Structures are given as C-alpha cells and as structure tokens.
Amino acid sequence: MSINSLSALSPKTWPFDGKMLPQTVYLVGGSVRDALLKRKTEHLDLDFIVLEQAVSIARNIAKKYQAGFVVLDAERKIARVVFKGTTVDFAEIEGNSLEEDLWRRDFTINAIAYNPFTDELIDLFNALKDLQDGIIKMIKSANLKEDPLRLLRAYRQAAQLGFVISPETQITIREFAPLLTQVAAERVQTELGYLLSHPQGMIWIEKAWKNGLLSDYFPAATENLGIGKKVEIVVEQLEKDWSNLEVELGSGLRNTVKTSLLAIAKLAILVNPYPEKAEVELMRLKYSNAEVRSIIAVIKGLAKLSEIEVIQMSVREQYFFFQQIGKNFPALAVAAVAKGISIEEINCLIERYINPDDPVAHPTTLLNGHDLITALKLPLGPIVGQLLTEIQIARAEEKIFTKGEAIKLAERLIEVRKDLSSF
C-alpha cells in the first residue's frame, strides 16, 4: 500500500489555500484511510488536527471563502467548515502530542496520520497491514468503553469497507454491548441509518444484534433477522419488471426526512409486529413522527396481506388499501415478498401502483367538495367527504366517467341512504 495513494489528499485538491494552515498539521481518520484504500467518494471529508487555534483557523478559512462554519464541540475545540462538495473539520490534538491523540482513537485503520506538506505518514499501530488484510481492530478496549457508540460503528465500517472485525475486538464489543444504551438515541439512530442504507448492512445488523448491541432496541427481531437479509435480494427480483423501484426505495419520505423507503422496509421487519409496541421502540430511537407513521403503515399492510387472498380483493378493498399505505407501497412490497408472500400474489397491486393513471392506486378527482355542496345544496360536514369517497370508488370500478355522472351518483346515494354513516 503506497503513500502515493494519498495524492488524493494533496493541498491542490482542497477548496482553500493550504498556506492558511500551520506547517504542523495532520490529516487523520476516514479521509486518510479511504485515500490509502483508493476509495472514491462523491463528497470529500477532511479531518485535520493541529496543535492549537483549531476553531480560529476554521473561522478564518470560512470567512475568507464565505463558507459555512460551525463549532462542533467548544470544549474539545472542534470546528467545521462546509464547502460545496467538501466538509473540513479542525480539531486540536488531544493530550500533549500527536502520539497521545492517536492512542485515544477507536480503530487502528482510523488512527493513521498524514502530514500533507511533508508527505510524512505516521502509523503507530501497523494499520497499513490491517488495511491490506481488511480487519477492523480496536486500539484498546478503554477507548470503546469511553464512547460506546464506537461499538456499533465497528459494524457500520465493516459493512461500508467490506472488512471483518477482529476476534479480540468482537469479544470486547460483546462485553461492553450493554453500554450502548447510555449513548444518545440520535447518535445510535445515525449509525443504524448507515447500516440500513447499505446493501450488506442487514448482515452486520444481525451480527450486532447477536452480540448484544441491538437486541435491546429490537427485542422481537429474533426470527426476522434472516428475513431482513432477504430484502436486497427481493429488490433485485422486483426490479426486473419495476424499473423505477430502486429510485423510489432510495428516496426519502420527504425533503426534511432522510430515511429512505428501503430503510423503512427493513425497520418494519426489525421492530415488533404489533403497531403499539413498534411505535414505542421507534420513538425510543428518536425517529420522527413521519418515519414512525410510515413504518407503522407498512407493519399494518403486512398484517393485512397475511390475512387475505390478494387476488380476491374487490376494487373497493384495494382502493382503501392504497389509501392507507400511500407512498409507502414500495417498502411494503419488498418487505412482503421478503416475508414469504409470492411476487405473483401481489403482482396485481404492483401493476396498479406502477401505473400512474390507475384509478385505484392513484385516484384523481372528477369534482371536489365545493362542487358537491353547490350542486346538491349540501351542508358542510362529513357527508361531503363520504360522498367523494364513494364517487372515487365508483370511478375506479368504471361505473362513472364524468362530473355529471358523479353528481347523479351522489344524488342517488342521498336518496337511497338516509344514514350516511356507513359510506
């Protein structure tokens, strides 16, 4: 493994002038590791450690280049500068020397330091060999105990790098596993999110669960861990006829919620199958209300599909089914097939969903509530919504096609049914 690999970290590639840094400066962590592995990333992350004035250096660079600036940890003197396509973190050396700082890090492969001005590489722990061997090895157990999130991070990095965790490190992880619950739930959720979004993530989630790291968060996952590992295989199977599936599964619930529909599918398999208990588990991990609603919708959809013969569902039943599952249907589809429902069985629902003009999965309105109120002189109230629903279903059943026919149907419903509560 050649130091030439680190040319990717040359000052020439930085979005700021290297002269703004002191000569005694080191790049550390993931950027050095990834450069040595020749891993290509769309977003460049640079982690610098300096002897002093880390926050001031970051602030001056941000000011000169009108970049984003934030103090990440005032006590530990860590600050971040954000450029387009590049994030740069600055931290002061912990302890009295670079060596002492590196001894405090999590894993050997993340404790290689590089001086970009002198091409000096500092490898105290023979981490270059660990990189070649594909092994994640702790520096010392006390470091994992100090920040138990590092226990879960080992699995995340194993998934992302395609590495294995050393036996000694796994023993320590099992010993300290109960400490993970002391970590802020938001931090645990972030690491879990990386695993959920990675194609090999469920394999490592299973290993983390069996080593006691995630069993407290997903106590009912015992039988479903194997099912969760099938999700990525199911996606490949469904993609043959559902060309846009990968894009839909990779999208977030909305712009403000980054959890993808693929992660929603996996979470619906991991959590308790009873919605009330699942909600408690998800809230403990600080998932948002929108994320919880989506996961619960998939859980309820799975229960529904296990109770009925899909092919025997009436148009009315399918209509309400799609109303309840909404945009979460791709997550439901992959979770359902992973749990053993055949693709053939739910294919009729899939065909409806992927057809944007399907009146059952994607109904469009012939008229709105105001139209009904005006035409039939109706009072405001639940009756309007009930009539609109019946009109939507009648259109899906191809019983009506025009606005006029919709109004006539509403008139008949009012005449025939005095009590509209059954609509």
Question: What do you see in this structure?
Answer:
The chain is α+β, with helices and mostly antiparallel strands and about 425 residues long. It has four domains: about 5-130, 2-Layer Sandwich (Beta Polymerase, domain 2), CATH 3.30.460.10; about 135-215, Hydrophobic Seed Protein (Orthogonal Bundle), CATH 1.10.110.30; about 230-355, no CATH class; about 370-420, no CATH class. The chain is about 50% helix and about 10% strand. A five-stranded mixed beta sheet has the order 1-2-5-4-3, with helices on both faces. Helix 14 runs antiparallel to helix 15, helix 17 packs antiparallel against helix 18 (about 345-355) and helix 20 (about 380-395) crosses helix 21 (about 405-415). It starts with about 25 loop residues before the first strand and ends in a 7-residue tail after the last helix.
In short:
This protein has 423 residues and is of the alpha+beta class.
CATH architecture of the largest domain: 2-Layer Sandwich
What is the top-level CATH class of the largest domain?
A: Alpha Beta
**Over the alpha carbons, how many angstroms does the gyration radius reach?**
28 Å
Alpha plus pi helix count: 21
CA(first)-CA(last) distance: 71 Å
CATH superfamily of the largest domain: Beta Polymerase, domain 2
- The number of strands is 11
The name CATH uses for the topology of the largest domain is: Beta Polymerase, domain 2
The low-confidence runs, each spanning 5 or more residues with pLDDT under 50, are: none
Sheet with most strands: strand arrangement? 1-2-5-4-3
Query: What class, by secondary structure content?
Result: alpha+beta
**Count of discrete domains:** 4
- Helicity, as a percent range: 40-55%
**Beta-strand share of residues:** 5-15%
**Largest sheet report:** 5 strands, mixed
Mean pLDDT: 91
What gross morphology would you assign?
Answer: elongated
